[in-house]
Write a structure and sequence with these properties.
This protein is of the alpha/beta class and about 425 residues long. It has 15 helices and 13 strands. The strands form two sheets. An eight-stranded mixed beta sheet has the order 4-5-8-9-10-11-12-13. Strands 2-1-3-7-6 form a five-stranded mixed beta sheet. The structure holds iron/sulfur cluster (SF4) (2 copies).
């Protein structure tokens, strides 16, 4: 696992009282760079840990901090007892608001969440094209310290993977239309492996299934431990990849561009399906040359089945400038964002205006096509306008493209066989939302 020096390690009583879970805790603690005595806690201690110990205080955009410490580690178990609503109400009564992933992780709930993207109850359905589906959760928080991200400060991981898998089996059976399952959109799950010993069983479990896939989304170099696992071709690893300056200066603890591509090469050699999301693309000075070098290296070392693109978004321009090292940003493109001043409330794609994003997409697309005339290239979480503009070039529409973590983007697929929004209309089955 990564070399880490967390300021504290918390372990719930349900972790230390079960020998198999305790072994997982012991292995992680033994692998830390500095020795830490785990603090064993009960649920009743959570309010004090949050309000007095400040375990959630470090959850701010990491680019706004002078120094970003390694996250606190917290090991817990999923409860699967149907008391999610009651336990959230209890937490709120204790003065801790919010029902985000981290609060759920503290309580031991939400092993998955229904992402209603582009369905009638999605408030952003007119402004963002994505795919409705179940998304799987096992951790919340990350060791990677990307400057634009707020997932630092604490990394909460569950340890009862065997229980999680048995409930996941029911979820999969109840939603036959969903073929691929993204594991984590706000954590980077390989980082505590193999010591944690949870991702291996997940990969092996999917390896037993027919035409069902887990999608591991990562910026990590840490793959050696997984190369010999019996994955049976049912694990897709999506590298979120960035070019050199961004990988070193803005995503400083992730693998570099070359390290991530090398990890993908090893995984590919071990039979895993690999693919890339160039997301977020931060237009730094020299972005064209760096993008070209990155894409050259992708095709020199690996054969992804698809590539998805997404320019840096979800920020007002001033918010972006607070988080990112402004001196690294392409000044002409930054000026375009400053002049446009798009507030994120108006569009999910702020701060860069459409013309700028389109230019960046077109450049990346041309570079990819220099190497491969056929590989599917799609946009991730872009808006409808951009799809109308670039769809003809990409050869897809907003409703038939395959992409990094789409729920029906199975390995090697060239175009969706089902309409992504119609396919999901059969779900979700309600009781799975209450776990
Ligand atoms: S790898 Fe992802 S989750 Fe981790 S810090 Fe970076 S953006 Fe956040
Ligand atoms: S890759 Fe596809 S499903 Fe995943 S976030 Fe992007 S658009 Fe949505």
């Amino acid at each position: 696992m990564y070399p880490l020096s967390p300021p504290a390690v918390y372990a719930h009583t349900s972790v230390v009282e079960e020998p198999r879970y305790k072994q997982r805790l012991d292995r992680v603690v033994a692998a830390l760079e500095t020795s830490v005595e785990p603090i064993v806690y009960r649920d009743e201690d959570i309010p004090r840990m949050v309000l007095e110990d400040g375990i959630l205080a470090g959850r701010v955009s990491m680019g706004t901090l002078e120094v970003v410490p390694d996250p606190i580690l917290l090991l817990n178990t999923f409860r699967f007892d149907g008391r999610r609503r009651e336990r959230f109400d209890w937490l709120h009564e204790q003065g801790i608001p919010g029902e985000g992933h981290i609060e759920a992780a503290l309580l031991g709930y939400e092993p998955w969440r229904w992402a209603c993207y582009n369905l009638p109850d999605d408030p952003h359905r007119g402004d963002k094209v994505c795919r409705p589906c179940w998304r799987l959760h096992f951790q919340h928080g990350c060791v990677h310290k990307c400057k634009y991200c707020g997932c630092g400060g604490i990394l909460a991981t569950m340890v009862n993977v065997e229980d999680w898998i048995s409930h996941l089996d029911r979820l999969i059976a109840a939603h036959p239309w969903q073929q691929t399952y993204l594991l984590e959109d706000d954590a980077d799950i390989p980082c505590l492996e193999p010591e944690l010993g949870c991702l291996g069983p997940i990969i092996e479990y999917f390896g037993t299934l027919e035409d069902r896939y887990v999608v591991i989304h990562t910026k990590s170099w840490n793959v050696d431990w997984m190369l010999d696992l019996p994955h049976n071709g049912n694990t897709i690893i999506v590298w979120s990849l960035s070019a050199d300056t961004q990988s070193r200066e803005i995503e400083p603890v992730c693998g570099t561009t070359e390290e991530r591509i090398e990890a993908a090469r090893k995984a590919q050699e071990a039979g895993y399906q690999i693919r890339y999301k160039l997301k977020p693309i931060v237009p730094v000075c020299g972005w064209r040359e760096e993008a070209r070098a990155m894409i050259d290296l992708i095709f020199e070392r690996t054969q992804p089945d698809l590539i998805s693109l997404c320019v840096f978004m979800w920020h007002a321009v001033d918010d972006m400038k607070r988080k990112l090292p402004v001196e690294l940003l392409d000044p002409k493109i930054l000026r375009a964002a400053e002049e446009a001043r798009i507030p994120p409330s108006e569009t999910m794609t702020a701060p860069y205006p459409d013309d700028v994003r389109a230019e960046i997409y077109e450049y990346h697309f041309r570079e990819i096509r220099r190497h491969d005339p056929d590989i599917p290239v799609s946009l991730s979480t872009e808006n409808w306008r951009m799809w109308r503009r670039l769809g003809p070039m990409l050869g897809f529409t907003a409703t038939d493209y395959v992409c990094g973590c789409g729920p029906n983007s199975t390995p090697g697929l060239r175009r969706l066989q089902v309409h992504p929004f119609d396919a999901a209309r059969g779900g979700p089955q309600a009781d799975f939302n209450e776990m």
